[in-house]
Write a structure and sequence with these properties.
By secondary structure, the chain is mainly alpha-helical. It is globular, with a radius of gyration of 26 Å.
């Protein structure tokens, strides 16, 4: 009886000491709080998983990696963290800047060992891409695989395992020594273990969460049954530009347009305005910083947010950055010259075997520019959930 009585006394006394004293408590997210302050609140996460998507948007390449608030939060940290480069100077956001619709105003972006071989593609609405492959040359079968390839590139972020670089395992070792990553991986995955697969899942969730559906186009599209109808909020010029964009052209035997629209939607169908999966090269075959031709570029970002609301381009266009205005982009497709050696030119650009001649007039060019500007929103540039979580 005495032993049982003493045990009864000792147990509550032990709990009383440990529960009433805060000295034994260790905050499991102390490093996250110390590093990010109020920029990341793990008790009140930003809404990544349940953002409003218009009912007319039907494409979704999420597959087996659905967006979660936890996963995208980790992805945001990884996206902006310069520790992911070998010399701590470059992050994903260095080349994909929120202020420029997650692209770069430089033709070639700076990496740890030089400049990139292609212009940084905008990341707007990557989740709603019709084409599931990524990179200009579509070498990544999924967005997940794409996310860690720049990290493993000698020029871009420097964990290539070649040319004296450490491999990706060196990055894993590095991240394991950073306190906030141990806490964040435990928070997201239930384990402190860091793997390339987990990094890919989180980065892809964050990138897929970056969406833009607050444009003038979206306001109009919500008011009609289909894209072919005139949008009540559009000017006559914008509606004309939309019809030109959507309608296929009529060509004569030598590739000259004789009627119809200009067929942009043949490769960039509304309402996602992503590139069609079966697209070929678009006639731009140059290389950045080197000679020769490159006919492998068949991917493109969505046409949404080509420009800011003031009409300023979010960086130069095409993989070489050779196009520096909407007028120049339209002009390129207006007259396609089939270059020697370009065996991969999209068939839609060479009707009857000839490079297309769309024979624009000034009114049509201005109408197309007016329509393309309606595809830009405003929230994507300012929403804090896509911003840099590291204090300046």
């Amino acid at each position: 009886m005495k032993l049982r009585y003493l045990s009864f006394l000792l147990i509550p006394t032990f709990w009383s000491c440990s529960s009433s004293s805060g000295s034994d408590y260790v905050d499991p997210y102390a490093n996250v709080k110390a590093t990010f302050g109020t920029n990341i609140d793990l008790d009140n996460l930003a809404n990544y998983a349940n953002q409003t998507i218009p009912p007319y948007i039907t494409k979704d390449n999420t597959a087996g990696n659905p967006i979660t608030d936890k996963g995208a939060t980790l992805g945001r940290v990884l996206f902006y963290d310069k520790n992911l480069s070998s010399n701590n100077t470059i992050s994903c956001a260095s080349c994909h800047q929120q202020a420029n619709a997650f692209s770069d105003t430089n033709v070639a972006s700076n990496g740890v060992n030089g400049t990139t071989g292609r212009h940084a593609m905008r990341l707007i609405n990557s989740r709603f891409a019709v084409e599931n492959k990524f990179f200009w040359d579509e070498r990544a079968a999924t967005l997940e695989f794409q996310t860690t390839q720049p990290i493993q590139n000698h020029i871009e972020m420097g964990f290539s395992g070649t040319s004296g670089d450490e491999g990706f395992s060196g990055l894993i070792t590095k991240l394991n020594q950073i306190g906030y990553y141990k806490e964040l991986f435990k928070f997201v995955y239930g384990s402190e273990e860091i793997t390339e697969s987990k990094v890919q899942l989180a980065l892809a969730q964050f990138v897929r969460s970056i969406q833009s559906f607050d444009s003038k186009y979206d306001t109009g599209r919500a008011q009609v049954a289909n894209d072919g109808q005139a949008f009540p909020n559009f000017t006559a010029q914008e509606n004309q530009g939309k019809q030109l964009f959507l309608a296929p052209p009529v060509f004569d035997a030598t590739g000259n347009r004789t009627g119809g629209g200009v067929g942009c939607a043949g490769c960039h169908a509304a309402p996602e305005f992503d590139i069609a999966p079966n697209s070929g090269n678009n006639g731009i075959i140059g290389n950045l910083g080197t000679t020769g031709i490159d006919i492998t570029n068949t991917r493109a970002p969505s046409l949404r947010d080509l420009v800011k609301l003031d009409g300023t381009l979010n960086g130069p266009l095409m993989h070489t950055g050779v196009i520096t205005s909407l007028q120049a982009a339209i002009g390129h497709y207006g007259t396609i010259n089939i270059a020697p050696g370009n065996t991969n030119l999209d068939p839609k650009l060479r009707p009857n075997g000839f490079g297309q001649r769309l024979n624009f007039n000034a009114q049509e060019i201005n109408s197309l520019i007016a329509f393309l500007r309606t595809l830009s929103g405003s929230n994507v540039y300012v929403d804090t959930k896509w911003s840099n979580p590291f204090p300046n």
